[in-house]
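Dear colleagues,

I hope this message finds you well. In preparation for our joint manuscript, I am sending the Galactokinase (Qipengyuania psychrotolerans) sequence together with its predicted structure, so that both groups work from identical material. I would be grateful if you could confirm receipt.
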Amino acid sequence: MSANLKARAEALFTERFGARPDGTAFAPGRVNLIGEHVDYNDGLVLPMPIAQGTAVAWAITSGSQVEAFAADLDKYDEFPASSPEAPADPDWRSYVRGMAAQWEGRLPGLRIAITGDLPRGSGLSSSASLCVALGRAFSAALSESIDPVTLAKKAQRTEHEYAHVACGIMDQMAIAAGEAGHAMLLDCRTLDYSLTPIPGDWAVLVVNSGVTRGLVDGEYNARREQCEAAAKALGVSTLRDADIAQLEAASLPPLAERRARHVITEISRVSSALRALAANDLASFGEILKAGHASLRDLFEVSVPQVDRLTERLQELIGEVGGARMTGAGFGGSVVAVMPSERAEAIAAEFGDRAFRVV
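The corresponding structure tokens are as follows:
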């Protein structure tokens, strides 16, 4: 957690509640290098945490309520610590109440103030960052430790049950268990993971497209349903268990075929990307990113023209060694670009405060 974000959370808490907090918890956002829309298909992914994230200042009270102040929204909520109910319409309260519910009535009365420096809707997983930060705050309030996998599962359940987003577990695991400067190879079926350092002569840059990503009109949940239908048609439990030969022999309807082809080839791209990373082969890694973007654009149909243009521009600036692709669920958000370290500053300068360097 940056000192500035911690100080901001503490100051906002003091201003709102008239006393200093007992503690401050933090969780980063994440950028996914490759492996998009495969986590809910039990696939392999390659995300990494970023420096920006969410801070939650907290204090125990003598009461039985949770008082929550979302400072960046200037919104307030209050609910019983022992029985948080989901709001009628999902919003920021869904995450606070949903995470509180994961402690099954054991939370004391609390006051919390929430702030962050992740742009909402940027595809950098502000919701999972919020959930993990809340989970760390709640654990600290109970003087308990919590392992990363358990915390990630609580955050995922909150998304499913309170925010009604049928997400996989990549974001939560990358945020709860990731390490700065390292890519996480995560098996979303077993939750086994390993961390590989980004080579020192590589740079990872994130550029916000400026198109606020919402999970447009249920499109995210629709993609999950389409993948489940394709897996059923192929006779496998999930698309992780299918291969291209099965797909080409099956004669699926065109929509199901496109969705399945993306997932099957994307999982293969993750394995190839890890090999390129381990071999310090930036040219090959860049080609994998380019292929991943084309698949998300043409087969999974989750990109938008503004993101495509930004990706193309970054590729022009990078040249032959390195690559760029949309990152996150799609329908807006950010582009991730990997390039030689010496090129990063000049490339980032073109995009001003829309760009930041991860490593």
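For the figure legend, we might mention the following. The mean pLDDT is 95. The first helix runs from residue 3 to 17.

With kind regards,
E.M.
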